[in-house]
Amino acid sequence: MVDNRSLREALERQIAYRLGATVSAKKASTLHRLIPVYHHHWTAIGRTFYVPSTEAYDADPWYSFKMLAQGYVLLEEQKKSWLFWPKWLFPQGFAALALLAVFSPWWLLALIFLAPWPAPWRRDYLIRAYGMGVAIGVWTHGQHIAPLVLSARVRRIHNAYYDWPSANKLDTVRRLHQFNDAAVTGSVCRDSTAFRDVLFLLVRAGKYVPHRDSHRYNTYQRDRIVVEAQ
């Protein structure tokens, strides 16, 4: 079985090959030095996956592998469409207009966007990224993710990204559960290179565990990737 550090390095190479992306510590980033917030967050911007520090990245290779896999999803989404960042920043990003309207009534109007308004597109992207974490859990444990784990991810999405309506929380739970089933069937890999690559690497590393209820599903997509990796 491949050790976690080698597995993470294999994913780094795959991301570099697919997207030309690299991993960098935030203290090496001019952007993050100018904006001294969220230094403890793992962030995917452009062609770089920023980690809090080299020490944090190396401390737990399995955890950093999972975070890198989630970042791979966001890096892939950014490459797919130039609309990623307008959607991600909506609506709080409009507060930047205040810089263009200093000392005018529009300045106060622009600042209104800093309020905790729901960010629907940001939520969608985060559900997909956290869905990678769900898929990794299914693929390495051979069973669906426990409800408490899903609930923790839902709280993280909604608390951090202002998606406060309770109806949206129920929808987030439903969609994360869909990633459970999609990971079992392999359909989650159908339109995403990131999910395909991560499953392939887990199988090749000997960490993939067949789902105990896989006989109930049409598993062609997943099994094809498993066979290719062996």
What can you tell me about this protein's structure?
With 230 residues, the protein is mainly alpha-helical. It has a domain at 118-230. The protein has helices at residues 4-19, 30-34, 54-59, 61-80, 84-89, 105-111, 120-141, 147-160, 166-185, 193-204, 220-229, and strands at residues 22-25, 43-45, 48-51. α7 (120-141) packs parallel to α9. It is globular and about 65 Å long. The model has no long low-confidence stretch (mean pLDDT 78).
Can you describe this structure in just a few lines?
The chain is mostly helical. It has helices at about 5-20, 30-35, 55-60, 60-80, 85-90, 105-110, 120-140, 145-160, 165-185, 195-205, 220-230; strands at about 20-25, 45, 50.
Throw out a few tags for this protein.
single chain, 230 residues, three-stranded mixed beta sheet, 60% helix, globular
Radius of gyration over all CA atoms, rounded: 19 Å
Main sheet properties: 3 strands, mixed
Summing up helix and strand content along with how strands pair, one would put the structural category as mainly alpha
Annotation field: number of helices: 11
Shape: globular
Percent of residues in helical segments? Answer: 55-70%
Give the termini separation. Answer: 12 Å
Mean pLDDT: 78
Order of helices and strands: HEHEEHHHHHHHHH
- Beta-strand content: under 5%
**Strand tally:** 3
Poorly predicted sequence stretches spanning 5 or more consecutive residues: none
Strand order across the largest sheet: 1-3-2
